[in-house]
């Protein structure tokens, strides 16, 4: 069996990585159960996405150009991260303030459940359980309810048992 030369290996490895990335993206889109489409945006390059298209010193100029082409909301991919850019203040206020219940939540962290910390209030996703935890937290730890008058008298330095 003939071995591959270093030049052939140098060509095969990047080509196979790009091919695997294209196959993975194709399968991911096929298996996507939501079926939600992303906004229009510049066409990404496999693996790198749009990172080479963004001006390094003044990225806002690139975003302004894309805003003129694709509209107030556009999609781009930076490395393997999907990014949706909101190009105007009015759209940002509409989506992030007025419709915040639709778009706000905590990120999913897969390691919470195996380590037994999925019940911690700080990691709880928004919903009824989160609201009840927040209500209990505020009732318990508000400044006016955290110490009752008897506890306040005991805390004074002259009332300590060893004083």
TrEMBL record:
The keyword Mitochondrion does not apply. Pfam families: p450. The keyword Iron applies. SUPFAM superfamilies: Cytochrome P450. Keywords: Heme, Iron, Metal-binding, Monooxygenase, Oxidoreductase. GO terms for molecular function: heme binding; iron ion binding; monooxygenase activity; oxidoreductase activity, acting on paired donors, with incorporation or reduction of molecular oxygen. It comes from the Eukaryota. Its cofactor is heme. Gene3D superfamilies: Cytochrome P450 (1.10.630.10). Belongs to the cytochrome P450 family. This is Cytochrome P450.
């Amino acid at each position: 069996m003939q071995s591959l030369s270093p030049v052939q290996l140098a060509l095969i490895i990047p080509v196979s990585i790009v091919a695997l990335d294209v196959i993975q993206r194709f399968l991911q889109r096929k298996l996507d159960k939501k079926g939600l489409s992303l906004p229009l945006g510049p066409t990404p390059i496999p693996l790198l996405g749009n990172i080479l298209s963004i001006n390094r010193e003044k990225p806002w100029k690139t975003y302004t150009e894309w805003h003129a082409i694709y509209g107030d909301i556009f999609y781009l991919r930076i490395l393997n991260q999907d990014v949706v850019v909101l190009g105007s203040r009015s759209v940002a206020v509409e989506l992030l303030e007025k419709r915040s219940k639709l778009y706000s939540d905590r990120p999913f962290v897969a390691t919470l459940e195996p380590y037994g910390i999925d019940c911690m209030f700080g990691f709880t996703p928004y919903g009824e359980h989160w609201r009840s935890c927040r209500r209990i937290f505020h009732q318990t730890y508000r400044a006016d309810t955290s110490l009752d008058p008897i506890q306040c008298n005991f805390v004074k330095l002259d009332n300590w048992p060893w004083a």
